[in-house]
Specification:
Immunoglobulin-like, elongated, five-stranded mixed beta sheet, alpha+beta
């Protein structure tokens, strides 16, 4: 019959450390070495000249086009019902007129009249953008990402202009 193990009491001498079998010690050493090599390989593989990390490209919101709603200059009273507004599409600052822009162009739309206006753009009768009501001197920004010939309309009038949004050029 086996005797029950005696409980340790304060002041007793510590028990000697457990002795492991040689095979167990060898296994522990091999597992420890493999873990160290795995960590080292992971650290080394993350060093060096890696390619750019994936993610969205840097955004560039510099305007490439400007669409301006302008009152006809020959109207004596700019708020009169008979004074039509018109659309002009130019490079930023109004330097030169535009008929086409590359895909991804940022376009600033500005209402330079004394009345509220709304501008819509559509391609093949599909809406592309709608500025909503723009009060006098309001501006908004539109990013043109739908390629093709776009009709830009001053809502509530017959004033229209066309703009071609060109497909991106293949990288060479």
């Amino acid at each position: 019959m086996r005797r029950a193990a005696r409980r340790r009491r304060p002041g007793d001498a510590p028990e000697p450390p457990a002795q492991h079998a040689p095979a167990l010690r060898t296994t522990v050493r091999v597992v420890t070495a493999c873990a160290a090599l795995s960590v080292g390989a992971a650290v080394l593989s993350s060093c060096g000249s890696a390619k750019a990390t994936p993610g969205p490209p840097k955004a560039n919101f510099t305007a490439g086009a400007q669409l301006t709603v302008t009152q006809a200059p020959n109207c004596p009273n700019a708020t009169a019902a008979g004074c039509p507004a018109y659309l002009t599409l130019t490079k930023p600052g109004g330097a030169a007129s535009l008929t086409s822009v590359p895909n991804g162009t940022v376009m600033v739309v500005r209402n330079d009249t004394t009345t509220d206006h709304r501008v819509e753009g559509s391609t093949r009768a599909q809406p592309v953008f709608d500025t909503g009501t723009m009060h006098p001197s309001d501006t908004t920004t539109v990013v043109l990402t739908t390629t093709g010939r776009m009709t830009v309309t001053l809502v509530g009038s017959s004033t229209k202009t066309t703009l071609t949004v060109e497909a991106p050029k293949p990288k060479t």
